[in-house]
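Could you help me review a protein record that somebody else here produced? Here is the record exactly as it was handed to me:
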Amino acid sequence: MVDSREHAVHWAAMISTTLLANLTREKLQQLLGGYVEQLLGGGVDDARQVGRSMVEHDFISSATLEQSLSYLGEHELLTPGQLAALAAGYAEGLRDRTLDQQEISRTAAINTMRRAENAVRASEAKFRAIFQSSAFPIVVVDLEGKIIDVNEALLTMLDYKREDMRKITGRELAHPDDREALREIGQTLITTDLDHIRVEKRMIRSDGETIQTHMAISLVREEENAPPYFVTMIENMNEMRALQTQLVRQSLNDMQTGLPNRAQFLGWLEGAVGTKGPEALALVQVDIDGFRGVNDAFGHEAGNRVLNQVATHLRAVFSEVGKVARIGEDEFGVLIKDPRDVLGVIALVEEFTARLEEPIWIGSHGVGVTTSVGIVARAARGGDAVDLLRAADVTVGWAKRDGKAQWALYDKDRDLRDKESYALAASIPGALEEGQFRVDYLPVYSLTDGSMMALEAKIVWHHPVHGVLCPNMFMDQSSANGMIVRLVHWALSEACAQAASWYSVLGSATPVLAFDLPPRLCQEPELVAEVARVLDRTGLPASLLRFELHERLPALLNDEQMEELTILAERGVGLVLDQVNGGNVGVDRLRLLPLSGVKFTGAVVHGLDSGANRVDESASVALLQWASILRLPLYAEDVRTDAEAARLASLGVTGGQGPHFGPPLLASDVSTLLLS
């Protein structure tokens, strides 16, 4: 449900500096809150009423309207039709306000003229000044249609000279098809008590061009012996409608790049998935990588140059086959109707990314720009525009997670798997409350004497629907949404408490408790304090706790976060570099951590099995020999065979774990092994 109060606060913040009205912030927010509720609960007529109401409350600055349309469009509070109706209502309110003010001026002028004729002729000059200086065209005609007087504004609008007015009648200024209707209006004013009537009628310029106008026709009755006459004030509706069109265009286009904005793009999508839309479509979403970094490093003007450059390349590549729009701060969308094939769309995307290889020069800096691109290709009719955008956004997320500066193609099965993972991660707090999690322990055995060296804690989820879930089914997504912090804190407390109970019996013979420390936890500013609280509460010595860190972790942490890990090591907690599988380990960052061991996995371990490929074997041997230079204990996980265990031992690996040594154990089973 949309919070009208929140939107009112943000809307008020955007327009407060543009207002000419004297309103307190509280009254302004209250008024805008009512507008939001009226707009969300109504249609185009309600939007039109809101536009008129804004003028009635003195929101008459063009900047106020521009900011309001921008806010309502960017936050998708209104449809394009409602935005246009709001702009139209605003224009109508402004027109009526101006006409009312001009009519007041006209009445005052006529009254002044009437008193001047009875008093002194000099007063007529004052009326003439008002009459002639009015921005609105005015024509005065007698009851027979003879032109008595016109002001300069009317001559300018119709492109006549003053002497031309002596040769024509007021009737001839009107469009032939509207002359009879105007004559009837005049008769109505003469024969009734009405003072004035407002109508929309057409007029003819001297060159024959038709002008749509809004007329305020008044009958002025003088003294008893003076004949009445008509005073008609005229507004050029062509100009008003041009302004209205411009306002609508501004509400549907991005001011920075000139591209259509998100509101217009959503309208395209809605049309594309309708019954009269194309058979198929392709939606391409483009996100600029590191855009905030460009703004922070070089300023917003540099960021604007990047936006314009990306927009230019998108136009050049896609304008002939699709529609391009800016749909977010650093996001662009392309809609392609009935694409020839998916490979053709991919080729266009690659052409676009190739154009970005040339850097943008900002001063002496050649700034490189890369983008992550999501491609969704599917049948169009009967689809859902919101779901299309969600699919594109998800696909861009895959491209970013896979390393950025690349494109990804939407995969329905992967999306379903991700949805399940996100749903699992979101339900972690409830599962913790209901006691669905437990900690199992995977033994780590010495490869020399077979003794149990350590126990690696493994979080297991007894899900009521999906059954027993291992960590790799929910840990990644829980890291993405932040739930991993609470889950790991709970698991660390549980495991340390269990290890402390074994320590109370075994003392120094207690196996070390190994615990995977995800990167998200290493970025917590209170890591050291949290670990200290757990150790103090459970009574487990720091020397019996060992954190296992992913091999990519050193490259992800800043100096302050690396310092937190160093403090843990200085207090006796072990740090082991985990999941080393032959990839590129950042040795320069690795030196900054006081490691107490390195654990190998995957191809490094399996390359030592009997019958393994010689190339794989030589690579494994070379890596383990290199690791021996570190003079740290070496460990191996996922050891599957006796041959792997034997070769690992011969190459200096201290401990191993995996299927060869047995599965994870319940805490009670570990107690039986240790204490029997």
User: Anything to note?
Assistant: The CA atoms of residues 457 and 495 lie 7 Å apart.
